[in-house]
UniProtKB/TrEMBL annotation:
Natural source organism: Methyloprofundus sedimenti
Name of a matching Pfam family: Fer4_16
Name of the protein described by the UniProt record: Epoxyqueuosine reductase
Recorded name of the encoding gene: queG
Family to which the UniProt record says this protein belongs: Belongs to the QueG family.
UniProt-annotated binding residues for tRNA: 227
Top EC group: oxidoreductase
Pathway: tRNA modification; tRNA-queuosine biosynthesis
Binding positions ([4Fe-4S] cluster 1): 192, 195, 198, 252
Length: 349
């Protein structure tokens, strides 16, 4: 029996590679240490108004409560890096260019990974018959990073992202909760050492301590999750980052081993890796929904999109064109966007 289950484990990993995953690992469902870290993080209020982080109770850290009969978890990673670091730095350092987190430039990763995970589950089913399973891609209360660490895909870095010794951190994670009792991989060891580059580089100092990110200060939270007004004191620190932030990954020394993705779905759409702020700010609502179709960016909606770009325009060097662009939108904007436009204009006064 042990020989058969070990062979099945080997096959699952091979099928995963054939489906385009760069790594496949397996772990059990004991996440007690991660549960305590999550409870501490929530107790500090670092989740801001992301109520979904606690409303599911223990389902996040106890997999069988989310998917009954789960005894093993298959964890996968897929590289998404669409361009080299030099190109990213060029965009980030150009104050009139729009910087969008590189994971969001192409097709929505949820769709890409979920489809592959479903195919993997079906391939397993062909081998073993009907079994209990459920696939996840950042779509339910799942501690995906803790699971990936236990499954040997990498370790949780001081910036809270998963880092792989041979591949850096530019990758997505996905999981299959399964009723199959599979042998677990050896958990990854932490290799951050004394490095604090990610802590020091964070524009808003959101990494308040090693392995602790305060979402209330994080640009990814401010530009994506936050629905209301961006705190005034944080706006100047956001620079030209209009959707997410990659600074902690750009600075991480382990990302010198990162490889460009060969997934066409993750290639930038509509030149979003090198667009000017004014061009994006001038998109109509119809253009926004048309050009973000099938993209993770669409989830923030048009008003947040304009809000974020207004802040970035306020941080750009003063110019007549920028002031004219802001003024044109002023009278046709929602109250939320108008507030941020007025702030931006004030920066150029």
């Amino acid at each position: 029996m042990d020989t058969a289950i070990n062979e099945l484990s080997r096959q699952i990993k091979q099928w995963g590679y054939e489906l385009g995953f760069q790594q496949v690992g397996i772990t059990d469902t004991n996440l007690q240490q991660a549960e305590q870290r999550l409870e501490d993080w929530l107790a500090h209020g670092y989740h801001a108004d992301m109520d979904y982080m606690h409303k599911h109770g223990l389902k996040r850290s106890r997999p069988a409560l989310l998917q009954p009969e789960t005894v093993s978890i298959i964890s996968v990673r897929m590289d998404y890096l669409p361009e080299d670091h030099e190109s990213m730095e060029t965009t980030l350092n150009n104050p009139v260019a729009a910087f969008i987190s590189r994971y969001a430039l192409g097709r929505d990763y949820h769709k890409v990974l979920r489809k592959r995970l479903q195919k993997l589950a079906q391939r397993i089913e062909q081998e073993v018959g009907v079994f209990g399973y459920r696939a996840f891609v950042d779509s339910a209360p799942v501690l995906e990073k803790a699971i990936a660490e236990k499954a040997g895909l990498g370790w949780i870095g001081k910036h809270s992202n998963i880092i792989n010794k041979k591949a850096g951190s530019w990758f997505f994670l996905g999981e299959i909760y399964t009723s199959l009792a599979l042998p677990s991989n050896v958990p990854s060891q932490n290799h951050c050492g004394q490095c604090v580059a990610c802590i020091n580089i964070c524009p808003t100092q959101a990494i308040v301590a090693p392995y602790q990110v305060d979402a209330r200060r994080c640009i990814s939270y401010l530009t994506i999750e936050l629905k209301g007004s961006i705190p005034v004191d944080l706006r100047p620190l956001m620079g030209n980052r209009i959707y997410g932030c990659d600074d902690c990954q750009l600075i991480c020394p382990w990302n010198r081993f990162a490889k460009l993705s060969n997934e066409a779905d993750f290639n930038p759409r509509h030149n979003l890796n090198a667009q000017h702020l004014i061009e994006l700010f001038n998109w109509s609502e119809n253009e926004f929904f048309d050009k973000t179709e099938g993209s993770a960016i669409r989830r923030i909606g048009y008003q947040q999109w304009l809000r974020n770009i207004a802040v970035a325009l306020g941080n750009a060097p003063a110019s007549t064109v920028i002031k004219q662009t802001l003024n044109v939108k002023l009278d046709q904007s929602s109250e939320l966007v108008r507030e941020h436009i007025l702030w931006a204009l004030k920066q150029h006064a």
